[in-house]
Amino acid sequence: MDADFFPKWKSQVKKGTLTLIALNTLKGQEYYGYELIEHIKRNTELEIAEGTLYPLMNRLKKEGLVSSKWIEQESGIPRKYYALTKAGEQVLTEMNQYWKELDKSIQKISR
Amino acid sequence: MDADFFPKWKSQVKKGTLTLIALNTLKGQEYYGYELIEHIKRNTELEIAEGTLYPLMNRLKKEGLVSSKWIEQESGIPRKYYALTKAGEQVLTEMNQYWKELDKSIQKISR
DNA sequence: ATCAGATACATAGTATAACAATGTATTTTG
DNA sequence: CAAAATACATTGTTATACTATGTATCTGAT
């Protein structure tokens, strides 16, 4: 038996799930990348590697689901803030609906 | 915008999720591959391609989470039945717990 | 009787996404 | 003053779902 099965499985479950979480987090408030990672870690117990988040946001931007803008800081490194677009909101609604059904199915078969 | 985003996302969400669903389905009852696909399709609205399920079951077998045995049919092609092992039951319990927490987090941030 | 579709297994190749490792640069804290 | 935290980013690796394809048997409709 592979003792690493569970951690590997958790990593696989994140595929897709992280997108859902990131978009939901951006609903109603803008965040910059590093802040998003911290916020998600605190609110979901989920670790997102930086090497996961930045490529993810680039994909979402390319898909038109989020927009981004650089904000200069009075001191320090400028921050790139992400915001949910109209298209992003629409897709997110579909995604949340799908997730709900999925969870319902899993609850049904796992009892 | 990429109109195919949503279908592609759904496919990504299946990564890991299908393992959870397959193992839960095998809890309490044995199924053969083709039957598993049909059963899952009926109970979850989830399509599992055959090219997904058979490699998945082989992985789970290699991990020791399921066992398999061939059952000859009076007529027709023999069927390979899968059963959850003790180790599989234990891991499944962890997985169901993790999923529960994950869903709770998502419900929290998506309101 | 024949042919299409369902049943039942399986594999090879492709695409996608998470992660570790690495890199740059600045600011804060001990 | 050095280490840790902040803040961005990319490259290469790994795991998994899917399409396409292949084999073989059985059932139902014309």
Q: How would you portray this structure in words?
A:
The structure is a homodimer of 111-residue chains. With 111 residues, chain A is α+β, with helices and mostly antiparallel strands. Chain A is 64% helix and 13% strand. Chain A has four helices and three strands; from the N terminus they run αβααββα. The first copy, chain A, has helices at 5-26, 33-44, 50-62, 86-109; strands spanning 31-32, 66-71, 79-84. The first copy, chain A, has a three-stranded antiparallel beta sheet. In chain A, strand 2 (66-71) and strand 3 (79-84) form a beta hairpin. The model of chain A has no long low-confidence stretch (mean pLDDT 94). The interface between A and B is large, with 42 and 42 residues. The structure holds a DNA duplex (30 and 30 nucleotides).
Overall body shape of chain A:
globular
Strand portion of chain A = 5-15%
Helix/strand order of chain A, N-terminal first:
HEHHEEH
Largest sheet, strands/sense/barrel of chain A: 3 strands, antiparallel
- CA radius of gyration of chain A is 16 Å
Helicity level of chain A? 55-70%
Number of strands of chain A: 3
Order of strands, main sheet of chain A, comes to 1-3-2
Spatial gap, N to C terminus of chain A: 25 Å
Q: Biggest interface: chains and residue counts?
A: A-B, 42 and 42 residues
How many helices of chain A? The count is: 4
Low-confidence stretches of chain A: none
| Subunit organisation of the chains | homodimer
Structural class of chain A: alpha+beta
Average pLDDT level of chain A: 94
Please tag this protein with its features.
homodimer, 111 residues, alpha+beta, 3-stranded antiparallel beta sheet, 64% helix, globular, DNA-binding
